[in-house]
From TrEMBL:
GO MF, one annotated term: glycosyltransferase activity
Transferase found in the keyword field: yes
Superkingdom, natural source: Bacteria
Pfam families assigned to the protein according to its UniProt record, in alphabetical order: MptA_B_family
Protein name: DUF2029 domain-containing protein
Entry keyword Transferase: yes
Cellular-component GO terms for this entry: membrane
Main location: membrane
This protein's UniProt keywords: Glycosyltransferase, Membrane, Transferase, Transmembrane, Transmembrane helix
Length: 523
């Protein structure tokens, strides 16, 4: 039997790839269906209740499902989604990319009509928008200051916390609040429509960015629009990260598609708006900066317009806009490998947060990860081309020399495109960050979808998102059955951190080996 080497880590037989091709669409379809079912069932441990008339959107059956059932459905959606996505990326399944695009978009549109699920963050968004619409500063005033307000009073765990989101996100939330008025349901529905438009719009832009190759279009749809993990977190979960990703993909599209000063200025403004949604989205700007490092004029234009946009939106928001961001940067989330590190430091040196030590360690790990992975970038400094990957555009051959009729190839590595550089940096940040949640990974998936295929790195990101997602079942405290507390104390606080630590070590080992092999490969 012949063998194929389409995946990192060794050959895969055609029969196995055929089996993966059968499993992948079934698993992806089931995962998306379960995600829809969770929202359709209505308020539960996974779906916060929305006060207001039931005839107001979003709609649900309000079936009152058992908490154990909906959490089991969510676990199945994540497990099927992660394995189905991994199988689709490694199989010989070749659906029409337009079919994937429209199927994923249809699911996103349907989910906009259902209550958001997975966490209660959308209630925070509605409250911050409500405060802004009432003329209050959501960066200085917490929702708890208005306990009797029909919208601000609906917040669950984070009622006493001011907004950590950027001014652009707050502006969208305020617009939804103005449209929804005193109704939590209508406010959330307004944000859900905007979220669905951002999710689908990102998919359409990625489809256009990869238009030159049907295989890359198919892969882009799998990594974003038809990605069951992103459907679960960003479509059903309605997290603000969707807006940040949409701005950054639009910036990359303008950067690659528009020429002259208009393209540079448009790209810069969109980068600034993305940073205006979430500060960490600014890591994407390093991709265009790298690609333009030898073109100082265009680099100055892009960087200048991006900086001016960021200064404008954050300046308008007022002096307290970064207060909560500073506090959040010192936190360590339960589901990252830094949680056991923090506990170890406390056991050795006594009580304390040790935020400075952990922050320094995370920056060092980020730098090491980014450097090692960048050495193995397809067509990058090491010249690596992963199995199943695609060669980037290379330098043209030198004309034949007088002594031979064969062309002499230039020993110059091809240029690494902005999306791939940005993807490497964002992936390194996600693995190194002390505070990270599974929906943050949407930025990495979108960047990988816009970049040349790299199966190994994609596999690490899929595994990371699936593991971290299982640790946040559910990502809220309310209505979780008491006998399922172990999902937090055991899975989230112990199993997930050590699993991600092992995965991070595997990524370091793989990147180091891939970089060495790439440097040994003849030019």
């Amino acid at each position: 039997m012949t063998q194929d080497t389409a995946v990192a880590g060794g050959p895969v037989r055609h029969g196995a790839r055929d089996a993966l091709g059968v499993f992948a669409p079934v698993a992806i379809g089931l995962s998306a269906g379960l995600t829809v079912l969770i929202g359709l069932l209505g308020p539960s441990a996974m779906v916060p209740g929305l006060p207001g008339p039931s005839w107001h959107p979003p709609y649900s059956l309000d079936a009152g499902p058992d908490g154990h059932l909906v959490i089991a459905l969510a676990a199945a959606a994540i497990a099927l989604g992660g394995t189905g996505l991994a199988a689709a990326l490694r199989s010989r399944w070749r659906p029409d990319p337009r079919l994937l695009l429209w199927a994923g978009s249809a699911v996103a549109a349907l989910l906009a009509l259902l209550p958001p699920s997975g966490s209660a963050d959308h209630l925070n968004y509605a409250a911050y928008g409500r405060l802004a619409a009432l003329g209050r500063d959501p960066y200085a005033v917490a929702p708890a200051a208005f306990p009797g307000d029909p919208v601000a009073g609906a917040v669950e765990e984070w009622a006493g916390v001011t907004s950590v989101y950027g001014p652009v996100a707050t502006a969208v939330q305020a617009l939804a609040s103005l449209a929804g008025g005193d109704s939590v349901r209508l406010t959330v529905f307004g944000m859900a429509l905007f979220n669905a438009a951002a999710f689908v719009g990102t998919g359409l832009l990625l489809h256009r960015l990869t238009a030159a190759d049907a295989d890359l279009q198919r892969r882009a749809a799998l990594l974003w629009t038809a990605n069951p993990l992103m459907i679960y977190h960003l479509s059903a979960g309605m997290h603000v990260d969707t807006m940040a990703v949409a701005c950054m993909v639009a910036a990359l599209f303008a950067f690659s598609s528009l020429r002259g000063a208009a393209g540079g200025a448009t790209s810069g403004v969109l980068l600034g708006l993305g940073i205006g949604v979430k500060l960490n989205a600014g890591l994407v700007a390093l991709g265009p900066a790298w690609e333009l490092r030898r073109r100082p004029g265009r680099l100055t234009l892009v960087a200048g317009t991006a900086t001016a946009t960021v200064a404008a939106v954050y300046g308008i928001a007022g002096p307290h806009v970064l207060d909560q961001v500073g506090a959040a940067s010192r936190k360590v989330s339960l589901g990252t490998p830094w949680q056991p590190v923090k506990l170890a430091l406390q056991s050795l040196f006594g009580p304390g947060a040790y935020a400075v030590w952990i922050q320094a360690g995370s920056v060092l790990l980020l730098a090491v990860l980014a450097w090692l992975v960048f050495r193995a970038v397809p067509g990058g400094p090491g010249g690596a081309v992963p199995a199943g990957g695609r060669l980037l555009p290379s330098a043209p051959p030198v004309p034949p020399s007088p002594s031979t009729s064969a062309p002499v190839l230039r020993p110059v590595p091809p240029e690494v495109p902005a999306p791939l550089v940005a993807a490497v940096i964002v992936v390194a940040w996600l693995f190194a960050a002390p505070y990270a949640l599974p929906w943050y990974d949407g930025l990495a998936f979108a960047l990988l979808a816009a970049a040349p295929a790299w199966p190994a790195l994609e596999g690490f990101v899929v595994a990371r998102t699936a593991i971290l997602s299982l640790g946040y079942l559910p990502a809220r405290e309310a209505l979780r059955p008491d006998d399922l507390l172990w999902l937090k104390t055991v899975v989230r606080q112990q199993v997930v951190p050590w699993s991600l630590l092992a995965l991070t070590a595997a990524l370091l080992w793989w990147a180091a080996r891939a970089g060495v092999r790439a440097r040994r490969r003849p030019a």
